[in-house]
Amino acid sequence: MFKKLFAAFSAKSKTRADAPYGTEDLNTVHKMLFADDVGQLFGEAPDARVVQAIAQDPNEESRVRLLAAQWLRASGHVPAAAEVLGVVIEVPLDGSMDTLAAYADGRVRYINQTGRTAVFEGAPADVAAQAKALVASAIPAFIKASRQKPVYAPGAGQLRFTFLSQDGNRVTDGFFSDIVRDELAKPVLEQGQRLLDLVVRQGNAQ
User: Where along the chain do its domains lie?
Assistant: First the structure.
C-alpha cells in the first residue's frame, strides 16, 4: 500500500511537522498520536509514585503509559523502564499526508490524506495482532533513531517513523529507496504496509 502512495509524489513540502493537515481538528488528532503532550492529564500535583505505577502497568492504555512517562521525565523522575510502546508512520501525499499509528496494546489510529480517520480499539483481532507486530519490529530501529524533534513534515518521496518510547520519542526518516535498503528500518516499513492493508480493507468492508 505504501508503495502505491509513493507513485503519486510530485512536489517538495515545507509543511510544519505539528500542523500537516488543513484543519485544526485534524492537526489536534495528529498531535495526540505521539503521546508527548501531557497537559493536565495527571492534575496539578500528582503523586510521582502513582504516575510511575501507571507508566509501568501493562494493562493500561499504551498512550496513557507514554504520557505518564513523559510527565515523569519532565518532572525530574526516571521511568522504571524505557519500553517502545508505539510507532507513527507518516507519508506525504498530494499536499497532505497519510498517518498510521500503532500501539503495543493493539490500538490503531489512521488519518487518510483526504482527512478521513479510522480508530481501532484493540479489534478486530488481525488488526490488533499486526499493530503489535509493527511495534515489536520497531525496537531494533529505535535504538539507532534520532532524538531530534523534526521541524517539518517529511518531504516528497520520503517517509518518517516516529518510535514512541517511555525514554522519549525518536525519529527515523528518509527517502523510500533508502528505507528499503536499511536493515533496521525496512522491517518496520514491511510491517506497516501489512497493517495499512488491513486497515484499508476494514474501511472498504464497512
Answer: 2-9+18-205
